[in-house]
Design a protein that fits this description.
Elements lengths: L6 H9 L7 E3 L5 H6 L12 E3 L4 H13 L4 E4 L17 E4 L6 E4 L4 E5 L4 H10 L3 E2 L10 H4 L9 H4 L6 E7 L5 E5 L4 H10 L5 E8 L1 E2 L4 E8 L4 H15 L8 E8 L2 E8 L3 H5 L10 E8 L2 H14 L8 E10 L6 H13 L7 E7 L3 H4 L12 E11 L6 H18 L18 H6 L3 H11 L16
Parallel strand pairs: 2-4, 3-4
Antiparallel strand pairs: 1-2, 5-6, 6-10, 7-11, 8-9, 8-10, 12-14, 12-15, 13-14, 13-17, 16-18, 17-18
Helix pairs in contact: 1-3, 8-11, 11-13
């Protein structure tokens, strides 16, 4: 520690067995740079302390210390919250960094894996591969942590085939607001388990996951189509064809796809979980505009996941801190964008001053196995989502200004005006600008039940960020 530790810091040091190296407070030299490390530099946050527990008992004692000092708590795994909610989202939070929770084992009878709550997705992939060539659905950024990812949704290329990351979770060890360490599953502490599968940050700190796994695909086909579209209307026409393709109810669940638009142009890219002959039989190229086609086949699952990470880095998403703003919308099969609205949207994109060249818009195909689960089976709020869009803008030279914010806000407004109603947002793409309306957008019809469970297990709202679940009153 640098200066004299505060009373809270002393309490936290005691909580982790008097190991001062496991606690950093505001008196610690280099606190913000070394320990806080905000992902979104546009949102300054100063926690009360950052802790690095090594056991569940440490976590429980940290939570008690926070409660005794009337402070809020948030867990951090990868730390990729768009609004810095993993460090509290506002000043004065106790951060529980889970980097030391790296336990892993595989039951080769059930193929159920035990994964520490601080494991990053890149390590999840490697450890599953090394223990029986197994896999699970998750996103493409290797620096994202399973702790937040598998308790908020966890969408990725294989989700149409296998479900979301949280759909793989069968049991957890979790620390609750009363400092108890409990197991939760469909049979034990089932209400807590239900809430953790979609709204975890407001209910506890998961120190361990038990997840079902899948056999790695033997062959995987990776494709991309660089769409030859110059003006706004050509780009709009390309999107219309993509939307028609992905809304086909008979489309194979092995097919994952993204429509990506940046300052440089338009590309349709994705993965088919099968051999090229099977992919070719879908005749995807004939259902899209003229394009520069690239198709490769890999029989190396680590190579496939690595390819996703490379693509994601090119799209300016990854482990890099920056000043950025993001917004999202969820679309169902009944929310396909009308042709006239598509034309208006792409005209808006072409003509609006965006305030930056570092912007991109991604439409992600979802649906499939995610939609098989009943809307009220877990807290996840968008079981009917067919696809999402994510709009990002990065200011490479300073804070995000009104011009950038207005561009993304206006983009969403064109869509919602065209559909005649507002659409929900994915909590994994958290949008601080939604304010108090955020929870209803994220969790929809499940919000009331979440608030009721919150009142039972965390009535003082210990696990808190600006848009987490509040207790029912």
């Amino acid at each position: 520690m640098g200066n004299k530790p505060s009373a809270v810091e002393n309490c936290l040091i005691a909580a982790v067995g008097n190991d001062k190296g496991l606690v950093a407070g505001q008196s610690t030299v280099g606190f913000q740079l070394t320990h806080v490390k905000p992902y979104n530099l546009d949102i300054p946050v100063k926690p009360a302390a950052v802790t690095y527990p090594k056991t569940s008992e440490h976590v429980a004692a940290i939570v008690k210390c926070a409660v005794d000092n009337s402070l809020k708590v948030q867990p951090r795994c990868g730390g990729h919250s768009y609004a810095n909610y993993g460090i509290g989202g506002t000043d004065g939070t106790i951060v529980v960094d889970l980097k030391n929770f790296q336990q892993f084992s595989m039951d080769k009878n059930t193929w159920q894996a035990t994964i520490g709550g601080g494991t990053l997705l890149g390590d999840v992939t490697k450890r599953l591969h090394k223990n029986g060539n197994r896999a699970m659905a998750h996103g493409t950024c290797p620096q994202v942590g399973i702790g937040g990812h598998a308790t908020i949704g966890g969408l990725g290329p294989s989700s149409r085939l296998w479900g979301s990351a949280l759909d793989h979770v069968e049991e957890v060890e979790v620390v609750l607001a009363n400092s108890s360490v409990v197991r939760a599953s469909e049979k034990e502490n089932s209400d807590v388990f239900w809430a953790l599968k979609g709204a975890g940050a407001g209910f506890g700190i998961v120190t361990e996951f038990k997840v079902r796994t899948q056999a790695e695909p033997e062959k995987t086909t990776l494709y991309s189509y660089g769409i030859q579209a110059g003006n706004a209307q050509e780009k709009a026409n390309a999107f219309k064809k993509w939307q028609t393709l992905i809304s086909d109810p008979n489309l194979s669940r092995k097919f994952a796809s993204q429509f990506i638009m940046t300052e440089l142009g338009v590309i349709v890219t994705g993965t088919f979980f099968g051999p090229q002959a099977e992919f070719d039989a879908l005749n995807i190229s004939s259902r899209l505009p003229n394009a520069d086609e690239s198709v490769i086949v890999l029989d190396d699952w680590i190579g496939v996941v690595g390819h996703w990470a490379e693509d994601q880095a090119l799209e300016l998403v990854g482990g890099i801190q920056s000043n950025f703003y993001a917004k999202s919308l969820a679309y169902t099969k009944d929310d396909l964008i009308p042709d006239a609205t598509i034309d208006k949207l792409f005209k808006y994109i072409a003509e609006t001053d965006k305030g930056t060249l570092a912007w991109f818009l991604i439409w992600d195909l979802e649906g499939g196995a995610i939609n098989d689960v009943a809307p009220d089976a877990t807290a996840y709020g968008h079981r009917d989502a067919l696809f999402y869009h994510q709009a990002y803008a990065v200011n490479l030279f300073g804070r995000v200004d009104d011009k950038i914010r207005n561009f993304l806000t206006g983009l969403n407004k064109v869509v919602t005006d065209g559909l005649g109603h507002d659409l929900g947002a994915y909590a994994g793409y958290v949008d601080r600008a939604l304010g108090d309306n955020g929870p209803s957008k994220y969790w929809g019809s499940n919000l009331k039940k979440l608030q009721q469970i919150k009142a039972q297990v965390d009535p003082k709202d210990v696990f808190h960020n600006p848009q987490s679940i509040r207790p029912a009153t």
